[in-house]
């Protein structure tokens, strides 16, 4: 059976896990009102998606 060659210190182990971080979502601008919007989602400000009214905004 395979046996580890030695104890991996917590610092060495945690260095491998250091790159697991959250990223800021990429935002695009709404073509109608210019508000920042998540990609492939309707604009919450004006209710449009691909220049078509999809939501009723109050």
Task: Give a description of the structure.
The protein has one helix at residues 10-16, and strands spanning 27-29, 36-38, 48-49, 52-53. With 58 residues, it is an alpha+beta fold. The protein has a domain at 25-58. The strands form two sheets. The protein has a two-stranded antiparallel sheet with strand order 1-2. Strand 3 (48-49) and strand 4 (52-53) form a beta hairpin. The longest helix is centred in the N-terminal third of the chain and has 7 residues, at 10-16. The model has no long low-confidence stretch (mean pLDDT 91).
Helix and strand pattern: HEEEE
How are the strands of the largest sheet arranged?
1-2
Number of helices: 1
The total count of strands amounts to: 4
Which descriptors apply to this entry?
alpha+beta; 17% strand; 58 residues; two-stranded antiparallel ribbon; single chain
Summarize the SSE layout with pairings:
Elements: H1 10-16, E1 27-29, E2 36-38, E3 48-49, E4 52-53
Antiparallel strand pairs: 1-2, 3-4
At a glance:
The chain is of the alpha+beta class and 58 residues long. It has one helix spanning 10-16; strands at residues 27-29, 36-38, 48-49, 52-53. It has a domain at 25-58.
